[in-house]
């Protein structure tokens, strides 16, 4: 899991493009099996589904980034407070 996480953090645009392309393919496959619409309508629906899926993934990534940032900030703040206590007790 950590290797996937590090790869995604290094290749952000590639991973977003891959999510979008997989959303298009999955939606086209689903619509082809389920609907009798013209191919142009299927393509429009596939694009909309892929955009919604990509927005969901981006929202999740933003939430994860915020959570990791606030967590790192809390650890740094706690470490600074611990250093101050150590200096006060030594000095």
Automatic annotation (TrEMBL):
Subcellular localization, per the record? Mitochondrion
Supply one GO BP term.
Answer: mitochondrial respiratory chain complex IV assembly
Top-rank taxon, per record: Eukaryota
Q: Which InterPro entries match?
A: Hypoxia_induced_domain, Rcf2
Asked if the Swiss-Prot or TrEMBL record annotates the protein with the keyword Ribosomal protein, the reply is no
- Which terms in the GO cellular component ontology are assigned? mitochondrion
Task: Using the record's annotation, list all stretches that form the HIG1 domain.
Answer: 1-76
For this UniProt record, give its keywords in alphabetical order, as a comma-separated list: Membrane, Transmembrane, Transmembrane helix
Q: What is this protein called?
A: HIG1 domain-containing protein
Which organism is this protein's natural source?
Acorus calamus
């Amino acid at each position: 899991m950590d290797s996937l996480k590090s790869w995604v953090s290094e290749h952000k645009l590639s991973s977003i493009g891959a999510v979008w392309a997989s959303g298009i393919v999955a939606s086209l496959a689903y619509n082809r099996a389920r609907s009798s619409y013209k191919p142009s309508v299927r393509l429009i629906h596939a694009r909309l589904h892929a955009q919604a899926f990509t927005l969901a993934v981006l929202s999740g990534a933003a939430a994860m980034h915020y959570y990791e940032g606030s967590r790192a900030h809390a650890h740094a703040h706690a470490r600074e407070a611990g250093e101050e206590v150590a200096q006060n007790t030594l000095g």
